[in-house]
């Protein structure tokens, strides 16, 4: 009996020892940022460490110029935040982070590189091309689908599924983009979207092929080519003198994001007693008579039921997002950021994030998507000349007022405040913006109906719109396929305006990347864009000169781009028939000029007194 009892006691003791040992076991699954650099203006970085029993661990480091400043525990024991101080004397290399819990130690290697990236400024001399990598070209079929991801489907025949486009497909067609006159590439988000199919409002199960459902900030989606493939794309662009813009999403993540599945704290996301969507009403933000509750519904309401709204007022999450933006800029050599759903973010956080990026990378372009067509309301969300209680520091923004104006204006007959007057009126409110040259202009994007369909597939109106986009102030961006007349409306889903670029897949029967694969009309459209985009690129007066516009009259809209060296006159006849324009009232800008060259047709105009302009036609005149 005593022998049995003694054996039992030994067994219990061993079990206790094993349990104690397990309690001290450290299992680190993630450290974010995954690496960092010496030479950053901010000498400190906050590491998010995730793993079992990690909150109980002590942390030490022995590396010249690097020290642990502080550790922070949060509600969830699977997280520990570690503040690292990196002195100016620290050198690049690999340090060892030692985590200790009781007698258990584990060591994690952490790489410090040297900050080297200097962004190439994206400005009004550029022509930005927006594309959706999954829908542009499939250059590597081996990464189309992975069995260990939540969405294993890749089917080009289904509009709502992934189609297999990737970075290699883009690289394969950089010659095409450069021929067109493109200087800068903007992809829809490339961060990992390891999410299942989601039931959208239209009822179909849809993949996150567009990229806006983040699941892990420090992974580039491997179906696009992963981190390595993205670096290859960045390098290929920069070798050609081209630039790269990344699409940021700070407002929300996917419900499949690992931090939503196991959040650090209850306030990591904005939670409500029951599902509460955003009102999408930006007026509440700047309204001097508005209510705090309406502001909260706009910013803290969820974008959709499967996109948890990030609480950017949580200091740890705010730092996490800011450091991620800095990390991407350095890691992938970015030249600019476009910020999704800008108006839904917490504005003090956005100011802090923008400033951190601009402090480290003064040449960086930052512009947001604020879908607001009223210039006064839009001006709140960008650097402005208005005395708002909070001053946003964002340098640029997507110019939704002029987008709406050109789309509406080309569909309407000319009237007191209709037709092309809408464009004039939108630009006449540039006094609101601190720097209108940083407004990003466009005819369409991945969330709108295709421009060619909006204007009833009228080719003359198409050329009017393109001519305006490439001659007005600001930074123009094109949506992929506009140059070959891609069309459609968002019915029944957004997938209808996100069709594959024909020729990007081996199975495609047509190839729009080549002149031989395009129709005569598509080639005419391509050549029209190409000619004007390349002329613009090489003409500082057109892309960076001053703008002077005149009140539209009799269906004509006339404006000038000019500097000390050159003057460009743009004449848009929006009438349904040819009409004569008397130029005397433009003497303010035409004095001293007697002739011109039409840069679109290469024709010379020996006299400028009267101009006979064909119906629905734009002339771009280099004055002599």
Protein described:
With 624 residues, the chain is an alpha/beta fold. It has three domains: 113 residues, Immunoglobulins (Immunoglobulin-like, Sandwich); 411 residues, Glycosidases (TIM Barrel, Alpha-Beta Barrel); 78 residues, Immunoglobulin-like (Sandwich), CATH 2.60.40. An eight-stranded parallel beta barrel has the order 9-10-15-16-17-18-19-20. Strand 16, helix 10 and strand 17 form a beta-alpha-beta unit. Helix 9 packs parallel to helix 10, helix 12 packs antiparallel against helix 13 and helix 15 runs parallel beside helix 16. It is elongated and about 110 Å long. The relative contact order is 0.09. About 1% of the residues have low confidence. It comes from Runella slithyformis (strain ATCC 29530 / DSM 19594 / LMG 11500 / NCIMB 11436 / LSU 4). One of its GO terms (molecular function) is cyclomaltodextrinase activity. Keywords: Glycosidase, Hydrolase, Signal. Its EC number is 3.2.1.54.
Overall spatial form: elongated
- Strands, total number: 28
Largest sheet: 8 strands, parallel, barrel
Q: Give the helix proportion (percent range).
A: 25-40%
Q: What's the rounded overall pLDDT mean? A: 96
Overall SS class? alpha/beta
Number of individual domains: 3
Protein name: Cyclomaltodextrinase
InterPro entries: Cyc-maltodext_N, Cyclo-malto-dextrinase_C, GH, GH13_cat_dom, Glyco_hydro_b, Ig-like_fold, Ig_E-set
Keywords: Glycosidase, Hydrolase, Signal
Enzyme class: hydrolase
């Amino acid at each position: 009996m005593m022998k049995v009892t003694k054996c039992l006691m030994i067994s219990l003791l061993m079990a206790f020892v094993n349990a104690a040992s397990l309690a001290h076991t450290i299992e680190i699954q993630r450290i974010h940022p995954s690496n960092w650099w010496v030479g950053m203006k901010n000498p400190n970085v906050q590491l998010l460490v995730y793993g079992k029993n990690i909150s109980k661990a002590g942390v030490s480091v022995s590396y010249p110029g690097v020290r642990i400043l502080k550790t922070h525990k949060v509600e969830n024991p699977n997280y520990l935040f570690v503040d690292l101080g990196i002195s100016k004397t620290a050198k690049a290399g690999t340090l060892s982070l030692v985590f200790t819990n009781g007698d258990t130690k584990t060591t994690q290697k952490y790489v410090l590189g040297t900050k080297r990236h200097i962004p190439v400024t994206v400005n009004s001399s550029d022509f930005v091309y927006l594309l959706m990598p999954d829908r542009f070209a499939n250059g590597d079929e081996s990464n189309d689908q992975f069995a260990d991801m939540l969405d294993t489907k890749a089917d080009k025949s289904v509009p709502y599924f992934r189609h297999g486009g990737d970075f290699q497909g883009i690289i394969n067609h950089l010659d095409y983009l450069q021929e067109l006159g493109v200087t800068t590439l903007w992809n829809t988000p490339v961060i990992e979207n390891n999410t299942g199919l989601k039931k959208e409002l239209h009822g179909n199960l849809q993949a996150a092929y567009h990229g806006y459902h983040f699941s892990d900030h420090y992974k580039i989606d491997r179906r696009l080519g992963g981190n390595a493939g993205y670096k290859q794309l960045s390098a290929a662009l920069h070798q050609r003198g081209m630039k790269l813009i990344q699409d940021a999403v700070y407002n929300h993540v996917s419900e499949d994001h690992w931090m939503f599945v196991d959040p650090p704290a209850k306030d990591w996301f904005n939670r409500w007693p029951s599902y509460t969507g955003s009102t999408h009403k930006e007026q509440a933000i700047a309204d001097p008579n508005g209510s705090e509750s309406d502001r909260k519904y706009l910013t803290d309401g969820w974008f959709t039921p499967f996109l948890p709204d990030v609480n950017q007022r949580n200091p740890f999450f705010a730092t996490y997002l800011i450091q991620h933006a800095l990390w991407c800029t350095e890691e992938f050599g970015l030249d600019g950021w476009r910020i999704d759903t800008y108006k839904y973010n917490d504005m003090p956080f956005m100011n802090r994030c923008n400033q951190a990026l601009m402090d480290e990378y003064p040449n960086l372009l930052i512009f947001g998507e604020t879908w607001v067509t009223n210039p006064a309301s839009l001006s709140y969300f960008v650097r402005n000349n208005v005395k708002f209680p909070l001053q946003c520091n964002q340098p640029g923004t997507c110019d939704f007022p002029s987008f709406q104006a050109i789309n509406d204006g080309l569909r309407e007959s000319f009237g007191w405040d209709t037709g092309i007057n809408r464009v004039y009126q939108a630009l006449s409110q540039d006094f609101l913006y601190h720097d209108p040259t940083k407004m990003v202009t466009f005819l369409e994007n991945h969330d709108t109906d295709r421009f060619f369909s909006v204007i009833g597939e009228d080719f003359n109106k198409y050329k009017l719109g393109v001519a305006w986009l490439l001659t007005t102030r600001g930074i123009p961006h094109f949506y992929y396929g506009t140059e070959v007349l891609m069309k459609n409306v968002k019915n029944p889903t957004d997938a209808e305006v996100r069709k594959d670029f024909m020729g990007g897949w081996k199975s495609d029967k047509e190839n729009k990347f080549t002149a031989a694969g395009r129709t005569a009309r598509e080639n005419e459209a391509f050549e029209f864009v190409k000619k004007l985009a390349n002329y613009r690129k090489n003409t500082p007066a057109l892309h960076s000169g001053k703008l002077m516009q005149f009140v539209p009259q009799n269906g004509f809209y006339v404006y000038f781009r000019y500097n000390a060296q050159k003057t460009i006159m743009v004449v848009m006849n929006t009438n349904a028939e040819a009409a004569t324009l008397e130029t005397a009232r433009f003497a303010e800008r035409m004095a001293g000029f007697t002739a011109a060259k039409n840069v679109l047709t290469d024709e010379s105009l020996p006299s400028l007194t009267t101009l006979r302009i064909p119906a629905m036609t734009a002339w771009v005149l280099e004055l002599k």
